[in-house]
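Worked example 2:
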Amino acid sequence: MGRVLGEFEHLILLALVRLREDAYGVTIKEEIEAQTGRELYIGAVYTALARLQKNGYVAAEVGEPTAKRGGRRKKFYTLANPGRDALRQSQLALRGMSEGIEAELDAITESSS
């Protein structure tokens, strides 16, 4: 098994899959916030993206400048093959650990009431 993804890295890679060609810092932040209810700092998103890019999990490409952004360019992110593999491994591990856990959670909740 390769390097285990942290929770935030996992969420970022999931956001890349959901957003596809529209994945850049702000949309990634907004997607994670919408899906998890967590409020994020954009700096944390960019720090994680840089780490994932350094590890070869994410590729980045700078888009064309737009008038809407005052001539600035967006940096778009895509899931690289090692990132896809790491995400798949992480998903399998979480699924395996979660399987059958609902009954146990219910038992814990009932016994603590």
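Residues 81-98 form the longest helix (18 residues). The chain has five helices and two strands.
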